[in-house]
Amino acid sequence: MTPGPLLAVEGLSVSIGGAQIIRQLSFRVDAGEIVGLAGASGSGKSMTALAIMRLLPPRARLSGAVHLNGAAITTKSEAELQGVRGRDIGMVFQEPMTALNPLMQIGDQVAETVLLHGAAGRRQANVLAREALDAVGLEGEAGALNRYPHELSGGQRQRVAIAIAVVLRPALLIADEPTTALDVIAQAHILTLLRKLVAERRMGLILVSHDLAVIARVAHRLMVMNDGKIVEERALDGEGPAQIRRSLRHLRHPYTRALLAAAELPVKRAAAAADATAAGEDIAPPVLEVRGLIREYRRSRRSLWHARTAFRAVDDVSLNLRAGENVGLVGESGSGKSSLLRAILALDRPQGGEVRLLGELFSTATGPRLKRLRRSIQVVFQDPYGSFDPQWSVERLIAEPYHLMDAPPGAAERRRRVAVVLEQVGLAAADGLRYPHEFSGGQRQRIAIARALITEPAVIAFDEAVSALDVLVRAQILELLGELSQRLKLAYLFVSHDLNVVRAIADRVYVMLKGRIVEHGPTAELFSSPQHEYTRALIAASPQINPASR
Amino acid sequence: MTDLPRRGVGFAVGAALTCGFIAMAIVAQFWTPYDPGILDIVDKLHAPDRHHWFGTDQLGRDVLSMIMAGARKSVGVALLSVAIGVSVGVPAGLVAAARGGAADEIIMRGNDVIFAFPSLLLAILITAVFGPGAVIAVIAIGIFNIPVFARVTRGGALGLWTRDYTLAARVAGKGWALISAEHILPNLLGLLLVQGTIQFSLGVLAEASLAYVGLGAQPPTPSWGRMLNDAQTLTALSPSLALYPGCAVLLFVLGLNLLGDGLRSRWNR
Question: Could you tell me the pTM of the whole model?
Fold first, then answer.
């Protein structure tokens, strides 16, 4: 007798208030199998995960059948379902901070799941919690059981969340974007851990992600969702990246192809970039030069008797940008990238070193000179929602940097120039009259770029400017940026934790670790033969679909 | 979603009551059925009828006219005291949030000092020293609105200062004062409107309280608080005399609070 599938979903449909979110979905998951569920935001992939757990919003209507180990889940009562959730099906969410109770020690949080299901007594629950934390790789941590979530890093918190999900050895684990909030190194560790747990325990795993590269790294089978339906399903057999690449290349559905093309960002043409750098090095002086920059934050006193100490977020950093050159700055969260950027933008005063813009001292400039120099460096921030005053029209927002001009253009001229930059970023002149809330995230990022262009700067700094965007939109924005840089001879300082993005846009890359630049060089060189061990770790951790171009 | 209509009813009732009383105050500025200052001892303690809808008091004054004139006083004092609180408290809160450090400490500790005094007691002290009267009442109530508005403004502004658009404005070369005026204050208006409504209702109550103990507007200016005090001695003879000004204070304050709550829930959505 052949065993049936672990999870069988048949004709699952979900609608909320008349809108059909999931349409007639059928699939199965076997024990020990990792199924990757991919799709852009709004494709219904997260709703599918919630529907299996029956954790839908109250007004959602569900039809179809879900069987776990042959038993129907869809007909169970809420009380019975509470027994299933956490015991038979575990779940891990995207945000590791909000998934944990900040006031509870992590050992107790893991044990709580055991106690809630009445699976063991207090003493036995603690033993199980200990085992689960060992299994997720927190065994090396002295006293890990007694620590609070805020004492852990994002990756460690996600491990705790996984420990809670697997402590009762569920048959099925559902992970919804479990690594999206983490940096690349933590992401690689979590993916390895999930793969190991599945292999050891013969669990089924549904891995929901918008990132095909993440799924390609661990999944046995890929399902692509669009508009509530599975549009593509394919086995990713074999462990070798070459096979995965081959099987992904056979993906046929146009939507999948778009998703794949977007995730597989083209590497910046190294030849053209190298020419520009080589030619530039002889003639052009750097447009932006940072020398020995130090940025310290004062820590609060430990007590009245302790002297104030300082935390050095940026430690003796030097870098330069030539006209028209695109430079990447990579590093994990907390490496000091944002502090460095704020100091470069003269938003914070550095404690040492200097920033020169177009040959002039920028970091200590004041008054009219600071205002004049500011025209030459503008910025695009990460959050497309927080970057704009919601009460201002797009035209007024884009024209805000005109404050830097000694003689700002009049209303008619202002409108004309705003229309020009709006068209440069692929929006319509008429969009100037609208308000930010009327635009999508990608369109807002275009508006932010338009705002940065209005003073015709020599340098634009990007602080994780595409990290908050959907993969499809991200590819479009990167294409736009490359084109603008070429046409307007713009230099970019591109700060990101995502190596794939940096590789797609940068001619040269600086790698930052703990406030210091540990390595820098032309992009192709740095990626093909990284010298510093941290760079090597970053590159190895970065998920790839197209290994040949690594 | 389901409790939306209920919330809407509260908001509508609050808005209607508030508008009604403010309209009454505006009308009283130009016209009242009778002159509330004119005594007519012959017609004293009249029961309500066609000529005097709310009857007359112990000196024969028309109660409806007095309620209307009292509304004018009440709205005037509360409005001016809120204006004092806003005009000093909001700039103080904006500066505290924008500058931080020593400026923040000085402003907020100054607020704490004002907060440390029981407000009504100090208002009584001020009126006792400077003599009773509407102007003194306005100032006494207004002073206690300052720290309220300063705190609300500072709290809201601190949140807005973490938004990237304030950073973008700094990159556009704008200083803290300009950013506060262009980006912070306009985004706080809803919050301040809600707080203003609530302080307005407290101002109405405070004005009535001061007048009740004889430290508000002086005779012959009518005021709800003093009408209540006058009616107190006559409760046995004519209980309805206390009812009218009492209900006026109750309904106006209730209306303002419902309006404030409604505005708050609309703002938070």
Answer: 0.77
